[in-house]
Amino acid sequence: MKIAILGGDGFVGWPTALHLSDAGHDIHILDNLSRRWIDTELGVQSLTPMDSIQERTRIWHAETGRRIHFKLIDLARDYELLKNWLAEHRPDAIVHFAEQRAAPYSMKSDRHKNYTVNNNVNATHNLLNAMVELDLDAHLVHLGTMGVYGYSTVGAAIPEGYLPVGIETMDGETVSQEILYPSNPGSIYHMTKCLDQLLFQFYARNDGLRITDLHQGIVWGTHTEQTRRHPQLINRFDYDGDYGTVLNRFLIQAAIGYPLTVHGTGGQTRAFIHIQDSVRCIELALKTPPARGSRVEIFNQMTETHRVRDLAEMIARMTGSEIAWLPNPRKEAAENELVVRNEKFLALGLDPIRLEDGLLSEIVDVAKKFAYRIDRSRVPAVSAWTKEIAPLINHDPEGKRLKSAS
Ligand SMILES: NC(=O)c1ccc[n+]([C@@H]2O[C@H](COP(=O)([O-])OP(=O)(O)OC[C@H]3O[C@@H](n4cnc5c(N)ncnc54)[C@H](O)[C@@H]3O)[C@@H](O)[C@H]2O)c1
């Protein structure tokens, strides 16, 4: 298949491009490289040394003889460029990662809120609009998030996208329907993913677009089978307070002797998936497109759930790290349960990598190896969800220790 990977220079997009290229597909990455600019804005860098996208694709060609093409396009702003590219290439499938994906970044300031909404909603809408205009019957696979459901449950498992409900009619009868599970976004970033869902519902129903939306858990790990093939194919690894996801942050904190930073009671339960499983799920989704005219296909792309403090305690036990209990910058329930249904990918053959099996090798192979690249001052998460929370945030969890040591 000819597959366009939008956002293919990113953390999940790059290993997906390699995985699908390795499987024999013709891969085209479209990306505006905004994530690299945001690194510059924040004064951070990936823990792993990343080459330019052109260099990465050159190395892949040298290693495998396979070409991955790259086109610099801003999906949110270059509508005509995007439309012309799609008209010329007419891909069989499109995988859409191209959004601003950090909740803390989206909550940094009013400017960051505007940027995230404009970027994410326009990128998705421009794509859908162009597909209809060009009569492009490509299967669109979008990376959404488990965060669209929110994290408080009523003791029932979260279904894969649709909730069966009974609605009482005027005659007192009960009519059964399946509706989109009620959205409950916890940040501006998550809100854009909820808006994406509505755009997909509309375009699938109105124009018959074939769409799969993957509600993904927090991705952990770095390597996939293909990124291991050459040092310059390595994936990015974010550890900073805005883009670093919770487990990857604990890993580098353990590797550099920084206290594991738990926000609040650490009673937040979250869904996780290893990067290798994430790329496998995307391949499985591509192999099973919905029929034209059917509703949006939704998968929960996660393999296990954990409470944040349990993860911190597990890593502390494995590495002898301390835990720092900090005020929570987010406005969220202190404790939540999370039970998630994920049978659809398991039924398609996914055999998940378990967190306990992969953690130590991530600490040793990646976090310790590149620890010299870490700027400790970028580790704390300081984006506050509200003006009331902002003054409570601890900007230097190490401060007391460093002072007493000096
Ligand atoms: N990483 C996770 O843990 C996680 C969890 C759940 C869902 N997701 C979703 O998966 C997708 C990919 O996440 P990631 O971690 O790889 O993020 P990332 O930031 O590493 O990659 C996103 C890529 O999209 C590009 N991009 C952003 N806006 C663009 C635009 N307007 N035009 C063209 N390119 C643009 C960026 O330059 C970047 O290369 C995101 O949509 C995210 O919401 C990620």
TrEMBL record:
Recorded metabolic or biological pathway in which this protein acts: Bacterial outer membrane biogenesis; LPS O-antigen biosynthesis
Protein name: NAD-dependent dehydratase
Residues annotated as domain NAD-dependent epimerase/dehydratase: 3-291
PANTHER family: DTDP-D-GLUCOSE 4,6-DEHYDRATASE-RELATED
One matching Pfam family: Epimerase
Gene3D superfamilies for this protein: NAD(P)-binding Rossmann-like Domain, UDP-galactose 4-epimerase, domain 1
Superkingdom of origin: Bacteria
Similarity-based family: Belongs to the NAD(P)-dependent epimerase/dehydratase family.
Originating organism: Sinorhizobium saheli
